[in-house]
Write a structure and sequence with these properties.
about 325 residues, nucleotide metabolism, TIM Barrel, zinc, ADE, binds zinc ion, binds adenine, single chain
């Protein structure tokens, strides 16, 4: 099974590029840019990555991003992730980035997007890994900040396929971003949103109805409402599930209790993704392995996660044929 999972072609649809910042690169960039970090050793970093919920993770994650300053830093970060993709046989990836985390520190939008884009282009040429870029609005910030960010993205429409919504779900309802998503759609961006990670099934419904999203990031709390699960299955609404993330952030106590396999068997279009792999203990193969070890599954079922991800991806029908 291990070899089967390692060799399986994979498609990643839920990956925050800032969440791929490994401690080694964090130390390297801190030294390069003369930035102070609150850790003296890798052991101290490991100790700090002991989260009890989403917010306790986000506080450390935003702090980590402070070492990213130049276009080269964003390139190096993205390139390191793409080397992991090559190793895990990821053939297509749709990458989130959080511009406000950087522009609020005085880093220009162009620096961020150009660094990431150059690495993605190089990986397409050298590794035949295709990709898309998704710009996320931070839901703990206000609507005005999201509109300013959207304005900055307009000059980069050729590089950004969709907008998303991440950060603290509780206390920041989808309704806060209804107008900015409407404007994003009218500008030709596709839309996705984190929902039902910590928030209830109604938070997923709100994201679908108010933000007109085409897929849900996480969405695992849909199981609180059986009727809703049936609806999601019928409509083949995709859920980009992140198993190791859900365990680290205590959405489920144990991988054996995770609902991803149950949802798969009910016909929901669930996919496996790594979210913030440097913080949650693993990239794509690790996530597949963790699910495969905790749940009895056939090879056909495991491969179905990749078929679902191709179906849910933002690649053209022509490109999909290359992947099938
Ligand atoms: N930003 C990075 N990872 C996230 C997650 N799992 N949920 C919400 N926002 C995030
Ligand atoms: Zn996420």
């Amino acid at each position: 099974m291990k070899q089967f999972i390692q060799d399986l072609p994979k498609v990643e649809l839920h990956l925050h590029i800032e969440g791929t910042l490994e401690p080694e690169l964090m130390f390297e960039l801190a030294a390069r840019n003369n930035i102070e970090i609150p850790f003296n050793s890798f052991a101290e970093v490991k100790d700090a990555y002991d989260f009890h919920n989403l917010q306790s993770f986000l506080d450390i994650y935003y702090q980590g991003a402070n070492v990213l300053i130049t276009e080269q830093d964003f390139f190096d970060l993205t390139w390191a992730y793409l080397l992991r993709c090559k190793n895990d046989n990821v053939v297509h990836t749709e990458v989130f980035f959080d511009p406000q985390t950087h522009t609020d520190r005085g880093i220009s939008f162009d620096t961020v997007v150009n660094g990431i884009d150059k690495a993605l282009t190089k990986a397409a040429e050298e590794f035949n890994i295709s990709s898309q870029l998704i710009m996320c609005f931070l839901r703990h910030l206000d609507e005005e900040s999201a509109f300013i960010t959207l304005e900055q993205a307009l000059a980069h429409k050729d590089k950004i396929i969709a907008v998303g919504l991440d950060s603290s779900e509780n206390g920041n309802p989808a309704s806060k971003f209804e107008r900015v998503f409407e404007k994003s759609l009218s500008e030709g961006f596709l839309t996705v949103a984190h929902a039902g990670e910590e928030g209830p099934a109604s938070s997923i419904r709100d994201a679908l109805e108010l933000l007109k999203i085409t897929r849900i990031d996480h969405g695992v709390r849909c199981s609180d409402d059986d009727h809703f699960v049936e609806e999601l299955a019928k409509l083949r609404t995709p859920l980009t599930v992140c198993p190791l993330s859900n365990i680290k952030l205590k959405v489920f106590e144990e991988m054996s209790e995770h609902n991803i396999v149950e949802l798969l068997r009910k016909g929901v279009c669930v996919t496996i993704n790594s979210d913030d792999p440097a913080y949650f203990g693993g990239y794509m193969t690790d996530n597949f392995m963790a699910v495969g070890e905790a749940h009895m599954m056939t090879k056909v079922e495991i491969a179905q996660f990749t078929f679902n991800a191709i179906e849910a991806s933002f690649i053209s029908e022509l490109e999909k044929k290359r992947l099938f």
